[in-house]
Specification:
60% of the residues lie in helices and 0% in strands. It is mostly helical. Helix 1 (2-21) packs antiparallel against helix 3 and helix 3 packs antiparallel against helix 4 (55-76).
Length: 163
């Protein structure tokens, strides 16, 4: 059930990214982005979480779903992959994905996981994002294990790619 939920979110995220590559190619962005949620099966997977998961995992899953919906709304409004609107919705979503993973690991294995295990400062990928780093010129260069992305979030960094 936990894998099913994150896989559905990943499928939806991938479809939203595909639409955001050329939002002008779609006649009805709202319908296409809503279909991305439905086609991925995210609603059914979320319901299973609500019924079977612990409170912590269900809460993390709901937070992830809400961030995915924010990304969906940004793309439905015409955000392209390189737009500020997409970028600003992306980081909270990927942060919520990692928080969900942490909640599941804690429940299933009783082991924690932190961004530091990967050499990162935070789950949301902002420390590895060229766009974020350019917006904050005083930020230090990427250290070991930190590869700046292209201006498209998660374009090259597999750690922040869709789950």
């Amino acid at each position: 059930m936990y894998i099913e939920f994150i896989a559905a979110a990943g499928a939806c995220h991938a479809r939203l990214r595909q639409v955001a590559e050329d939002p002008g190619a779609e006649a009805d962005l709202d319908a296409v982005t809503r279909a991305a949620l439905n086609d991925a099966g995210i609603y059914e997977a979320r319901e299973r979480l609500f019924i079977d998961a612990s409170t912590a995992v269900a809460g993390a899953g709901q937070a992830m779903f809400e961030r995915l919906r924010a990304l969906q709304r940004a793309v439905a409004a015409g955000a392209s992959l390189t737009s500020t609107a997409f970028h600003d919705a992306y980081h909270p979503y990927i942060g919520a994905v990692w928080e969900y993973r942490v909640a599941v690991r804690k429940e299933l294995e009783g082991r924690s996981l932190s961004p530091a295990a990967f050499g990162w400062e935070a789950w949301d990928g902002t420390g590895r994002c060229l766009t974020c780093r350019q917006a904050a010129p005083s930020a230090p260069d990427a250290g070991p294990g930190q590869t700046p992305n292209s201006t498209t979030p998660a374009a090259t960094d597999p750690a922040t790619a869709p789950p």
